[in-house]
Each structure stands twice: as C-alpha cells, then as structure tokens.
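Sanity check record (used in CI):
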Amino acid sequence: MASTVEQPGRTVPTLEEQAEKRRKFRYRAGAFLAAVGATSAVAGFSKAIMSAKKSDPKYFDKGLHGSLALHEAGTSLALRALGWGTLYAILGTGTICFGIWKLSGAKNMEEFRQAVGSAFPRVPRNDPPTSRTEFEGLTDLMQYLSTWGKEEKAVTSLATTQPSQ
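Expected output for Transmembrane protein 242:
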C-alpha cells in the first residue's frame, strides 16, 4: 500500500505558480491594510468633525462659510491642514522605514527579517505556559495581575526569615 494517495486531475503547483500566488496574496494583504487604515482615518476625522459641531454649532456654521472677518473658511483651512499633515506623516514614516531597510542591507523581506531578528534579543518560548492563561472575566484577570509576583516574593522572604535547625 502506497503512502501517498493519487488524486486524479490534481497537479503539483510549480515554483513560478507558488511565487505568483504569494505575490498576489501580498498585494491583497496590502490593499486590505490600506482599506482598514483609510476607513479608520475617515471614521476618526468624521467623529472629530461631529464632536466639534455638537459642542459649538454656532461657530461651526460660521466656519463653514467664509465671511468678511475670516479670510478663509474654517473647513477649507482644516482640510488643507489635514492634507499637509497626512502628507508629512506618510512621508516621514516612509522615510524612516526606508532608512531602516537600507541600513539593514537587506535585499528582500526574508533577509530583512533575518537581520532584524539577529539585532534584537530572542523572546523565549513559553511552552507550556508557566502561569495562568484562562480567566473567567476581566475582574479575575485584574485580580491575578494585581497579585502576580507577590506570592513568589512572600515564599522567598519566608525562607530567608525562618531559622534553620
């Protein structure tokens, strides 16, 4: 009896097909992250606008339309500031990321992961976990966190204060 099962009509994908599949996955993942970021930015900006309108509707309406006293409407000024702030944030973050990438000397993401992994200390695995991982609720978790480490200190202090016989 053979250890592999033959499946008619199924072929093993070539390396080029696997690379193409990985490339498409990366594009989809990037598009998803961009969509999530854009959605959260729009939601945050609209929440800020709504809270400003709710707190002072009189001056909010004055800012919507330019007047003789104001050289520029408040909304156009705010949108211009938002545009410049967004541009500076994206360019700044991109420059920092590009600089770190170039300083690492990596040619692809795998090399970058290896370079960063060798620069930072390793995080030890916790298999099996030595502390609690399941909690009944938030109160149980907070109680555990407030007493965490105190039992160990109490045990060590008892061992040092008791006279040996």
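Residues 66-121 form one domain. If this sentence no longer matches the regenerated tokens, the check is flagged for review.
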